[in-house]
Amino acid sequence: MPATRTTLRRSLAAAAALPLLAVALTACGYGSEAKDNDKVAPAAKGEKIGDLDEVKIGYFANVTHATALVGLQEGLIQKELGGTEIKPQVFNAGPSEIEALNAGAIDIGWIGPSPSINGFTKSDGQNLRIISGSASGGVSLVVNSEKIKSLDDLKGKRIATPQLGNTQDVALLNYLSEKGLKVDANTGKGDVTVVRQDNKEIPASFESGALDGAWVPEPTASKLVAGGGKVLLDEKTLWKDGKFVITNVIVSQKFLKEHPDVVEAVLRGSVKTNAWIAANPDKAKASVNSRLKADSGKELPAEVLDPAFKNVEIINDPLASTLRDEADHAVKAGLLEDPLLEGIYDLTLLNKVLKAEGQPTVADAGLGVK
Questions:
Q1: Strand-pair category, 193-196 with 158-161
Q2: Pairwise CA distance, residues 361 & 189, whole Å
């Protein structure tokens, strides 16, 4: 790649990421530490992996992060790590988790594709690798049906996303652009007003009438429906075969280089967790709820948890080809120019684990480390 193009990409990516950085730095300590609870994952015990005391893992309190929620709650990931203790941190959205990864506050994280792309591009491919898939689907546009009766009624309305530049924010901006509706990506102002608000706050704003709708992941989408909202669009209907990456697993390149055995252990725990979820869906759903209660102090009622859990597909495949599309969406949305994708994946350890578990290996769509 010519040096001039690399320099241009760096400058454009950095410029696009500045508002994301500003938002991320407002998050207290990047993310909140998961609360201690008797029902949460058992303590580390046994021999440490590579003599490492701890591994710092980030995730969201979303059903789309069920692998992390269940894997931590049931101790399936900790079991693979032996005496190397998991230090969990909970985030609201991806940009703040990327900043935590860059700062060394976490080593491994469950996160959406758009922040992964943005973070990788901003660092010119130096900060992270995507090492596994985790979930597909689980995102909907939920609206006040009295104000928005069809997709042609979005102009002039206020629609929320969890954070500027997060995966749902990019998806909404791209969709509005395809509908011919103009929105300034950074300010959220335009034919539609895009309101960036914490997932925890969106349901109350929606019920108060401050929002006309929201493009959000589970369980926020099902919370809005339980509060009287209507699903106007399930994002999976916009994708070929109804599949698109919503959650993948990333690791800092420094940690991957220094502690590949720990990363492999986490991936082994992730793959075994996904198999456990598939074999025990009802127990897994209860486990998700227990972890959410441990992290936030609140369980989800059945009318929220049941549809939320049903709407998310738990997978190991990172669906790498859909990452290309999501990068294109970020460009169309005005959040990135010339995103860097080459080398964003390293699926070597995941495929090693999958082979050992007798499962099919997965592909990186030509975007892996050469």
A1: parallel
A2: 44
Does the N-terminal peptide bond of residue 219 adopt cis geometry, omega within 30 degrees of 0? Answer: yes
Task: Measure the CA–CA gap between 34 and 37, rounded to whole angstroms.
Answer: 9
The Cα 79–Cα 177 span in angstroms is: 46
CB 252 within 8 A of CB 266: no
DSSP 114-181: HHHHHHHHHTTS-SEEEEEEEEEE-EEEEE-TTT--SGGG-TT-EEEESSTTSHHHHHHHHHHHHTT-
> In sequence order, which residues have a C-beta less than 8 Å from that of residue 124 and are 6 or more positions away?
6, 9, 10, 340
**pLDDT tens, position by position, 226-261:** 999 999 999 999 999 999 999 999 999 999 999 999
Q: Are 235 and 139 in contact (CB under 8 A)?
A: yes
User: Cα(77)–Cα(66) distance, rounded to whole angstroms?
Assistant: 13
Cα separation, 177 vs 213, whole angstroms: 17
- Bridge partner list, 91: 60
Which pTM does this prediction carry? 0.86
Burial class (CB in 10 A: 0-12, 13-18, 19+), 14: middle
- The tens digit of pLDDT for each residue in 177-218 reads 999 999 999 999 999 999 999 989 999 999 999 999 999 999
Q: How far apart are CA 190 and CA 67, in angstroms?
A: 37
Whether 131 contacts 346, CB under 8 Å: yes
Closest CA to 131 of 255, 266, 251, 252: 251
Distance between CA atoms of 34 and 295, rounded to whole angstroms?
A: 5
CA 14 to CA 20: how far, in whole Å? 10
